[in-house]
Every structure is written in structure tokens, then in C-alpha cells.
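Hi W., the flavin-adenine dinucleotide complex you wanted:
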Amino acid sequence: MTRTQVGIIGAGPAGLMLSHLLHLAGIDSVILESRPRKAIEETIRAGVLEQNTVDLMVETGVGERLKREGFVHHGFDFRFEGHSHRIDLSALTNGRAITVYAQHEVLKDLIQARLDAGADIRFGVGDVVLHDVASSPRITFTDADGKAGELACEIIAGCDGSYGVSRPAIPAEMRRDFLRIYPFGWFGILAEAPPSSHELIYARHDRGFALISTRSADVQRMYFQCDPADSVENWSEDRIWEELQTRTEGEGFRLKEGRIFQKNIVPMRSFVCEPMQYGRLFIAGDAAHTVPPTGAKGLNLAVADVFVLSRALERFFKAGSDEGLQAYSATALKRIWRAQHFSWWMTSMLHRFEDATEFDRRRQLAELELVTSSESAARTIAENYVGLPLG
Ligand code: FAD
Ligand code: DHB
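Structure:
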């Protein structure tokens, strides 16, 4: 049996950042992660970091490579009806910006920092079960070699993503789930090509949404709206490029094409679990909520949750006060619902809905006209996109 102050389930952005922040506050934690380290460090996911996430990483000593290799973007383009309209993020938010730096690079940096500080991270564990979460919590598991293990802790942080075991450990009658499923998904690619644009492009087209992002001078990340039940095998390179070219056309713009070396389809949903606490179990990140990726909020929300949770745990362990912990769920949910609205809003403005009428189409275009021509509407987009202050 191992003892620790905080038992963390999941080594995604939420679990690793929480462990890192707790360590800086002198609080001990152990992380149990079901996947091997290599798999975590290679999974392609999000890419946009809010100013808050960047600042937190830099201030807490894990932002060296991010500062060197991340791309700071001061604006992005909305493209519709063949024209681009720039949202000047920095001018509209007192100089704030976003940074494009892949999620798995954030994870590599956090894992390295935790291991350098002597952290106990168990990769490749199985059969994770939470016990006695309302009184004296324990977690049982089997380690990577199949040996049974047990972790006794004062607090459990459930950071195990959308399909983990933590959320179900909150009794169904104690929680309420809010879910919206969208009738489309995103087809994501990585391509060996130079950037086609120096900023991100969020494009609305009658054939559906497309997003042009980047990873480096030689690798580009792009997405387009698709049927969530479609299969990547149905899409040849030529068909993908033709679809992306069509959806982003206008003003002579042409995407720079190249070999596509990664394809995946992700379904889209909005989800919130309330409250995010039961007894001594606190859930954070995707374990508690999911947003459609259009607002680029998933990873950033996970970081914001554990920022609040780490401060509450510090008060608990240092001052013996559980006030912060009692307020954790309500505090985190305020930001989460703000991000839920923003992500839904961006999704609804930019995607093609099969049942949309000609009225809906014109209304959608009028909304895009509004957010690209009215400074106050553009500022609302910009403030939400770069992220509201933490805490
Ligand atoms: P996760 O990153 O999911 O981490 C949870 C960890 O817990 C995982 O490492 C998992 O292996 C582990 N785990 C699960 N179950 C157990 C268990 N029983 N025991 C132990 N460990 C367990 N957001 C965007 O903004 N833009 C995007 O383009 C984007 N793309 C995405 C693509 C995919 C395929 C997915 C799934 C998500 C994407 N997201 C995107 C969302 C974003 O990546 C997440 O919001 C973010 O990863 C949340 O971090 P987290 O730490 O809460 O959860
Ligand atoms: C990326 C992902 C997003 O969800 C988004 O809104 C912008 C960029 C990306 O992976 O680069």
C-alpha cells in the first residue's frame, strides 16, 4: 500500500498540471495512468493554448520549450462567402494572444518536469477502482506488470477524461449530466506542407466548416466538418485536398498541399456534470465536461479547473480549511458554462446543419457579419478566445 495526500487518476493535461502545481505548493501526489508514457506523448489532439495557460506554464517553470517552439498568434481569420475577416485578438484584448503548441508537447514537458522532481507516476495501470470516496478514500489498481496495488489518499482527483472511472464514482442520484450531441464530427489531418496562412482560418462554407491550423514550418494541422459515422478510409488524399480547397476558397487563396500522414475523425458533443465533487473526490477536465473543439477550449478548461483545485487543496492541507474545496465545483462551473456557451456559439455560427432552412443560412451569415464588423461583437469573440483570467 502506498500513501499520498492526493491520488490523481489520469496523466492528461489536468492530472499532470495538478500534480505539478501541488508539488510547487509542497503537496504530495501520485498519478495512476492507464496508458503507457509513449502513447500519451504521441496522441494528436488540441493545439491552441490560451494566454492564461501559457502564462501558468511559464510562471511555474514548464514553459521553456513552449516559449522557444510555440507560435504566438495575435489574430485569426473568419472566412465566409469567399472573403476573410480578421479578428485582431491583441488589439481587442489589451495585447493578449494565443499560442499554437500541440497538446502532446505540453504533456511531454509536464511529464519530464514531474519525473525530474522525483514524482511517482504509474503508467500502464489497469483495473482502477475508487473506494470509500465519501470517508477515507483508497484506489486499487493493477500495475503495468499485472501486480495488485493500493493507494491510500486524503483526496482523490479524477482527471481521467471523458470515459474514465471517476465521474461514475459520483452516485447517479447525486449528480446531473447535461449533454448535447452534434450531428457532425471533425475530420483532422496532419500534412507535410508549408503554412498556407500565418494565422488560423475558421471557414464557413455551404459544404461545411473547415479550419486551417499549423504545427511547424513543415507540418500543418487542418480539419473539416464531416459525418461522425464516416471512415477515414473513404477519404483519399485528393478528395481531402479538394474538399479543403473548396471550403477555404476566395480572394485567390490556395492551400499549400502535401503528403497527409495522419487522419482521424472526432465526434462532437457538449457535456457538463454537476457537481464536480462527491465527498473527497473532485473531478476536473474532460472527466467533468466536454466542449466541441471549435472554441479551442478543451485543454485550456482542464488547466483552469486544476488551477482552482490546486489553490483549494493548498488551503486544505496548509490552513486546514475546506472552504476552497467546498467552493471548487461552483467556481469551476462558472468558467465551464462560459466556455460551453462560447464553444456552442462558434460551432453554431460556422457549421452546416442538415436541417437548416434558407432563413437559417442567412441568419448565420448575418451573425458572422456582425462579429466581424462590430467592434464590440468582435471583442466578445476575442476575449473568450484568448481566455478570461484564471481564478
Ligand atoms: P485527457 O487528456 O483525456 O486525459 C485523461 C487521461 O486519463 C488519459 O491519459 C487517459 O489515458 C487516462 N485514463 C482514462 N481512464 C483511466 C483510468 N480508468 N485509469 C487511469 N487512467 C485513465 N480540444 C481542442 O480544443 N481542440 C482539438 O482539436 C481537440 N482534439 C481532440 C481530439 C481527441 C481525439 C480528443 C479525445 C480530444 C480532443 N480535444 C480537443 C479535447 C482536449 O484534448 C481535451 O479537452 C483535453 O485532453 C482534456 O484533458 P484532460 O486531462 O481532462 O483529459
Ligand atoms: C486546433 C484545434 C482546435 O480545436 C481549434 O479550435 C484551433 C486549432 C489545432 O489543433 O491546431
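The pocket of 3,4-dihydroxybenzoic acid (ligand 2) is lined by residues 46-48, 100, 200, 211, 213, 221, 293-294, 296 (CB under 6 Å).

W.
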